[in-house]
Amino acid sequence: MPTAIELAEQFQASLVGEASHGFTGLAPLERAQSDQISFLSNPLYRQQASESAAGALIVSQSDLEFLQANPSANSAKRVYFVAKNPYATFARMAQYFAKASGPKYEPGVHPSAVIDPSATVPSSCHIGPFVQIAAGVKLGERVSILGNTSVAKDSVIASDALIYPSVSIYYGTQIGERCIIHSGAVIGADGFGFAPDFSAKGGEWVKIPQTGRVVIGNDVEIGASTTIDRGAMSDTVIGAGTKIDNQVQIAHNVIVGACCVIAGCAAISGSTKIGNFCIIGGAANFAGHLTIADRTTVSGNTSIIRSITEPGQHFTGVYPSMPHGAWEKNAAILRGLDKIRQRLRLLDKNKSSESWDSINLNLIFTFQRVIYEHTNRNRH
Q1: How far is it between the farthest Cα atoms of the chain?
Q2: Which pTM was predicted?
């Protein structure tokens, strides 16, 4: 059981409280007990943190000062880990406890695994049941490949990677160090490339061979049932440190920069380039052949159809949810926008013969009248 001082030193946090206090793990504020650690990263939860039974809290300096000024019955013996980024410190500490208590993949090859004699598989690797490793595959040290996964010809998986069960890794794929790939992911399937050849009498879609690879950088995590297609003639590339959620589709020739996060069900069309440190919300989608600048944020369900050239922008293209009746009124207003535009143009032509005050009143009355007409029409 690690002590407070050991954890503080390992995770570079300042310690306030009993250095010898031992801890078994982490828990949420409302469930944590005296031998567990929780964290506070949002000032809205300060009161809940003060009342928590947690034996330790990971906090910022300002939150520490608040908690010390507003003690509760549980505060007397509490330990504080003071960090510049409490949330990130919590995540790293959680990794530490999870690794200590999680499954261990001992080196060795299961008897049912099938490994081509030309493959390179160090003795430090763990190869699970019914794994298939084809000719020319090269594994780094301490790679773990769990049951029913297939690794096709000439693929390379670097050291300390973890491949969960039932992953399909197509030929020539390169996977960096410490990558994690979850069950059901398909890496390196053919991109969706077909050339139309039609005439009045018929025709066909002619398949374009996908001869590129998928190249995945170090420290990438890929969620369950995510698909990353191989390039058509160049490679599909996922930058180091990027985290991809479940059921994401990344098409051929896409380049995703370093340290991006892509939430579930997002889709990126072919040959689009995503910059570094981008945040992509769930079910967001991108047209093909776009360039997205560094540090772009795209909200969930947003469609991006043009390149984004200015770094650090936040794009949202979704109506917030609302009662259906309110939505119908808004839809009616939208349908009337073209009529409003026509009337505004007419008023603009007549502005030379009218005072500006009169024009402004006409604009207001016209807008109100059109909204009223379309709203009432929609009700019937």
Answers
A1: 93
A2: 0.85
